Amino acid sequence: MTRRPPLVLLLPAAVGVAFLLVPLLGMLLRTPWDRLGELLSAPLVGQALRLSLLCASLATLVCLLLGVPLAWLLARTRVPGRGVLRALVTVPMVLPPVVGGVALLYVLGRRGLVGQYLDAWFGVSLPFTTAGVVVAEAFVAMPFLVVSVEGALRGADPRYEEAAATLGASRWTVFRRVTLPSVLPGVVAGAVLCWARALGEFGATITFAGNFPGRTATMPLSVYLALETDPDAAIVLSVLLLVVSVALLAALRERWITA
Amino acid sequence: MRTRPRLRVLSALSATALALTGCAPSDAPAPAESGSAATPLGEITVFAAASLNETFTRLGEEFEAANPGSKVTFNFGGSSGLAQQLGQGAPADLFASAAPANMKQVTDTGLVTDTPTTFVRNRLQIAVPKGNPGRITGLADFGEDDLKIALCAEQVPCGAASKKVFEAAAVTPKADTLEQDVKAVLTKVRLGEVDAALVYRTDVQAAGAEVEGITFAEADEAVNDYPIAVLAKAPNAAGGRAFQEYVLSESGKKVLSAAGFDAP
């Protein structure tokens, strides 16, 4: 039996829902449905969407490869200054993305701290490349993955790991066969969040990777520029991005994240 | 009790600030509209193109000093964005656009009833990082594949102007990035991430020693007019008009031309 929630909670909650959803609904109301086909079939839209999906997925992959071990380090070991480390790795989550982009530019740019050697030794320059977009997105999105996975690891019972170790499994085997499967829902939830954040990334991308159609112009960048000349096109692009993200989040939520 | 010393410091500071600003107008020639100081002009809201940031901020300070009781507040941004904000009912007294097209957007919807006045012109210049590492000499270098090039996107005024000069020079630029505004382009030059870019002459000047400017003949093909106009629904039309007069006055012209703007 469900009890009727108290009005003091219900009212602000309802306002909260309205506050978050009405702007999105408003955008749908302003959508020029009659121009939808024409605007969506513009070659630049397909290009931007493909690039967005590709870069967000690659960024998520990077985050998984680096973020899961990092989360494990934070949750399972006693490295000195762990609390500080945990706070630091989540900084990109609250940092204005433009600031992240500036930081990346100063470090990985052609004249940057590290970037100048990448350029001189390997001829690699990340700004203005698709790889640069992936780097910018991963930088902004990784904390979301780390936080989710770390939470899942803390919730998991360490006794299974201990049992596996007593039975002679190596530490890597324990991680691979026991730890990872037990926190898999947390990893997937983190990856989905990470992917969604990467897909919507704007500030760090435009600052670090620039904007060039087919190479670095992702959907959010295209929306911003479209707003300068054709607000209708900007709305259509936004709706498309919204639909793609909501559909994926909803599909994955059903499967992996139980309410 | 504990706030008292702080208050004293504050009041000392504000007294110094007042004294300093009070001194400022003595340098500038006495503006014509100082007579209107009898009726305080109050809050004046000015929407101005991002490229006017440095000059208008300075003019605003001078204007406030010359007109006690006035307070000029700026909303700087891309002209098209500002025009859209005005179209959505943003309250403003004065609009200074970096392009006639964005002013037309505002006049067409009846938000401006006066005829806008062109108060400055701006032209493009090639911007290169200090020392010119890419050895850029002219527009033809923008067609080189192995140089890093930043341009404004065609959707924004500096990008439209860039397109015109490249057409005039018959050069197909090999851009690596198309930025959303001219300041973003300038940043890429400042940081040395690109070898060359096209920005306004005023931007090169504002960047100081970090950036070198190279003039080119085709810049004449895309001279950009800056119109200014008082808005029809201005909450403070008198204030807006007074600041517009100040921008158009001799002292206004001096500040603008020192920043690299051409006279209309």
From TrEMBL, chain A:
Q: Name one GO molecular function term.
A: molybdate ion transmembrane transporter activity
Keyword presence, Ligase: no
- Give the matching InterPro entries: MetI-like, MetI-like_sf, ModB_ABC, NifC_ABC_porter
Its annotated compartments are: Cell membrane
Q: Which Pfam families match?
A: BPD_transp_1
> What are the record's GO terms for cellular component?
plasma membrane
Transmembrane domains' residue ranges: 7-29, 49-75, 87-108, 128-149, 178-198, 233-252
For this UniProt record, give its keywords in alphabetical order, as a comma-separated list.
Answer: Cell membrane, Membrane, Molybdenum, Transmembrane, Transmembrane helix, Transport
What organism does the UniProt record list as the source? Actinosynnema mirum (strain ATCC 29888 / DSM 43827 / JCM 3225 / NBRC 14064 / NCIMB 13271 / NRRL B-12336 / IMRU 3971 / 101)
Name-wise, this protein is Molybdenum transport system permease
Say which family it is in.
Belongs to the binding-protein-dependent transport system permease family. CysTW subfamily.
Keyword hit for Zinc: no
Q: Which residues are in the ABC transmembrane type-1 domain?
A: 49-252
- What membrane topology is given? Multi-pass membrane protein
Top-rank taxon, per record: Bacteria
SUPFAM superfamilies to which the protein is assigned, alphabetical? MetI-like
Signal peptide region: none
Role played: Part of the binding-protein-dependent transport system for molybdenum; probably responsible for the translocation of the substrate across the membrane.
From TrEMBL, chain B:
Q: Record's InterPro entries?
A: ModA, ModA/WtpA
Q: Give the signal peptide range.
A: 1-19
* GO MF entries: metal ion binding; molybdate ion binding
Q: What is the lineage of its organism?
A: Bacteria, Bacillati, Actinomycetota, Actinomycetes, Pseudonocardiales
What the record says about family reads: Belongs to the bacterial solute-binding protein ModA family.
Name recorded for this polypeptide: Molybdenum ABC transporter, periplasmic molybdate-binding protein
UniProt source species: Actinosynnema mirum (strain ATCC 29888 / DSM 43827 / JCM 3225 / NBRC 14064 / NCIMB 13271 / NRRL B-12336 / IMRU 3971 / 101)
Keywords of this entry:
Metal-binding, Molybdenum, Signal
Domain of life the protein comes from: Bacteria
- Where molybdate binds, per the record, is at S51, S79, V182, Y200
Q: Which PROSITE patterns match?
A: PROKAR_LIPOPROTEIN (PS51257)
Q: What Pfam family is a match for this entry?
A: SBP_bac_11
NCBIfam families assigned: modA (TIGR01256)
Instruction: Give yes or no: UniProt keyword Protein transport.
Output: no
**PANTHER family, per the entry:** MOLYBDATE-BINDING PERIPLASMIC PROTEIN (PTHR30632), SULFATE-BINDING PROTEIN (PTHR30632:SF0)
Gene Ontology biological process terms from the UniProt entry: molybdate ion transport
